Amino acid sequence: MNLFKRTILASVLALPFMAQAAMADGLISIIVNDPSNPYWLAEGNVAKATAEKLGYSANVGAHKGDTNTESNLVDTAITNQAKAIILDPANADGSVGAVKKAVNAGIPVFIINAEINQTGLAKAQLVSNNAQGAALGAMAWVDAMGDKGSYVELFGAPSDNNAQTRSNGFETVLSQYPDLEKKAQEVANWDRTQGYNKMQSMLQANPDINGVISGNDEMALGAIAALKEAGKLEGKVIGGFDGSPDAVAAVKAGELTYTVLQPVAIFAKDAVEQADYFIKNDKLKVAEEKQLFDCILIDSSILDVYSFAGPFQLDR
User: What tens digit of pLDDT does each residue of 188-228 get?
Assistant: First the structure.
């Protein structure tokens, strides 16, 4: 085949890809924490699918809690002339600089899941109502405990405001019951392996605890594994938070007392839709920057009535 014919053939083959690129309304960059966690995986997948449905091209990057990686991902979005950035921030304080950089480049930023400690930068911050969800879970946990007993708490990543908000929500409820005694609290950074390790050490120091309350499902599932290994799972009251598929399966199996479903699929979709509205109209679809989405308690009784349409998507 001569050079002329090869050039024509290459051009013809490239036409569908060129047409697809031309049809896209631009790029929306989505930056999440760590897709190895099913919660953040669903967050990125829903945001990407929504952007593509609205006619954009979309990519998903992960900072894994590292602000330097996050900053590099924002730089890439700027270089690629993204129309908007959907960001689950790495650090409440440390991510402010990355958001400022995007805003200074003229790219609107829509925050999801975790907040930054500065208002007026992001066009919106869409998060679970963590205080409401923590209180909801804590009340179910107290009821299962029978208002008394000893327990330990697994705390999330201190750099994420959600960790302290949930812990405060637990404490607000549990402190009202004098016969409940907290024996220990350990930071496990939202991670299943760390939850397992921290549960092992707390169990060695407190072998007769009655329950575990956890800031997320991954840490709770790690605690369940440690209790199983020690032969001490039976009769324990264990509470999670997120509503992950593995946690729902553990509730069905009777190992996890409940999980609190975060509506991540809802606010990830809403964030992209709000970004789309802003891109097309140069004004906000929702006036409030901070938007809270209520959580739902998932226990065995609700699973008898409702099912899941997909990860983190309760089918009502």
Answer: 999 999 999 999 999 999 999 999 999 999 999 999 999 99
Please report the DSSP string for the chain in residue order.
Answer: --HHHHHHHHHHHHHHHHHHHHHS--EEEEEES-TTSHHHHHHHHHHHHHHHHTT-EEEEEE-TT-HHHHHHHHHHHHHTT-SEEEE--S-TTTTHHHHHHHHHTT--EEEESS--S-SSSSSEEEEE-HHHHHHHHHHHHHHHHTT-EEEEEEE--TTSHHHHHHHHHHHHHHTT-TTEEEEEEEE-TT-HHHHHHHHHHHHHH-TT--EEEESSHHHHHHHHHHHHHTT--TT-EEE--B--HHHHHHHHTTSSSBEEE--HHHHHHHHHHHHHHHHHHSS-SSS-SEEEE--EEE-HHHHTT-EEEETTEEE-
Q: Residue 24 burial (CB < 10 Å; 0-12/13-18/19+)?
A: middle
- What pTM, to 2 d.p., does this model score? 0.86
With both helix axes pointing from N to C terminus, report the angle between 264-281 and 38-53 in degrees, rounded to the nearest 10: 30
First to last CA, the chain: 60
3-state SS string for 124-156: EEEEECHHHHHHHHHHHHHHHHCCCEEEEEEEC
Mean per-residue pLDDT, 148-158: 97
Query: Among 90, 73, 107, which residue's Cα sits nearest to residue 275?
Result: 107
Q: Cα(293)–Cα(285) distance, rounded to whole angstroms?
A: 16
1-49, pLDDT tens digit by residue? 443 333 333 343 443 433 343 346 899 999 999 999 999 999 999 999 9
291 pLDDT band, cuts 50/70/90, is: very high
